[in-house]
Each structure stands twice: as C-alpha cells, then as structure tokens.
Amino acid sequence: MSVIYMLISISTVVVGLFLFLYLRAIHSGQYEDVESPAIRMLFEDEIITPPAQESPEEKNMSHHKDKKEKQTTT
Asked: Transmembrane stretches, by residue range (predicted)?
C-alpha cells in the first residue's frame, strides 16, 4: 500500500509541474497567434534559383586533370 501513496505523490508533483509550464507558456503569449503559422507556409519569401550546373567538358577536365598532366609530362 505504501507504493500507491508514493506513486500518487509523484504523479501529483508531475501534474503540478506540467500545469505550471503550461500556464507559463500561456502567460508568455506562445498560444496567442494560431492562424499565422498555418498561412505562413503558403507565401514564398524569395525565389530560390538552383546553382549553375557544370558542362560535361568541365566535369571531365576536373576529373581527369591529374591523369592528363601525368600523360603530358612523360
């Protein structure tokens, strides 16, 4: 029976802690604006352009640069 009393007291402390944190969040104004976050994702702030892609020649040059240098020096 003593375990039940201990569990009830611990659960009461936990509930009190959650109630305190909830009331503190309400008092700080965290739950005042519930409309803006749902609408904010519909508006784009800026247009994001993808980075310029390399041409196949540039890719081959950068990849085989060391091999070409070795071939020209021998």
From this structure: 6-23
